[in-house]
Input
Amino acid sequence: MAGMLYLVPTPIGNLGDISLRCRQTLEQADFIAAEDTRVTLKLLNHLNIKKSLISYFEHNKAQKGEAIVQRILAGETCALVSDAGSPAISDPGEELVRQCAEAGITVCAIPGPCAVITALSISGQATGRFCFEGFLSTAKKSRREHLESLIDEQRTMIFYEAPHKLLATLESMAQVFGPERPISLCRELTKLHEEVVRTTLGGAIELYTQQPPKGEFVLVVAGAQPIPKEVHTTVDAAQRVKELMDTGMSRKDAVKQTAQELDLPKNAVYEAALSLE
Ligand code: SAM
Output
């Protein structure tokens, strides 16, 4: 019988956040695939768990993934962990999940610590609709292109960022979204120095120019304000039909085009056009 792959989230700071189920899964797995075996060994020592560890990280995942799949197909159960938080979310694991699914292996994701959700919930920004954008590129041009693709995004946007790139990222964001755009900078979540700075992009640039950023950050940026839809009346419609008919267009076509342009029902436009005659 084939084994299984478990995705096991680990604390993003506070070791108390490991759940009972995660602990049991780590204890019961045949082996653990870890992003950095040294980091995971510290956690396992803290939990008093002794288990066979193999490394699975960005630069060996192509070759290690296949070996893991074969072991699971042979009947072993693997627990995948990353350095912190939920595996496969801006972390190695996405590809292993795909490989296991393709091989018909059952994948079980255990819910638990995840920086993006922890930050969103504490941010004070709108949480009803959001998009996760992961890490921006370090290259200025692709960072800018990524941000420009979000210029009309109305959902709350969430980014991961390293402290040494924070200022450059905030500056690019202010250029694209404007310095008045609200942002919540969620730092060192669940740790001793947890802090949430709710400000604007301009305010954040000012703050972190004076005080160099330290620790891990999640940036929660408010979405764009919706552009109010222009409300068109039947009087506008009648005028537009007349304009189009003056160019030689038939009434039928002018009504059709006007209805499309002004987002009004065709019947209403037709009646408005008749009333003008
Ligand atoms: N898979 C993990 C998750 O979803 O929780 C995220 C891994 S990603 C490689 C690491 C990034 O997550 C950091 O650069 C930072 O943006 C964010 N992060 C992780 N732990 C954090 C913490 N305690 N406080 C704030 N941000 C954190």
Summary: The beta strands are 4-7, 31-34, 53-55, 78-81, 106-109, 130-135, 156-161, 182-187, 195-200, 217-221. The two ends are 80 Å apart (CA to CA). The chain has a mean pLDDT of 94.
